[in-house]
Amino acid sequence: MEPLVRSAGFDEVAVDGETVRVANDVGPASIELTLELVGDLLDAAMIERQRRAERSAQFDWLEGRCESDGRGEGST
Hints:
Elements: H1 2-6, E1 12-16, E2 19-26, E3 29-36, H2 41-70
Antiparallel strand pairs: 1-2, 2-3
């Protein structure tokens, strides 16, 4: 399980029974997720794809925010 989740690009992976904790460092911040598995490898693959899409959207937002803040135009 760990190699599969780590291949999704997470910096840290910890598996404890059916609980998977993953983390990704983004500059000075860290994004952490705790997942409760309800099935086998297929469930893990689906979670991996969903989290990758979510992370991509979060990084796009963060990048846009940092670029705006760098020009003094940051807003919420």
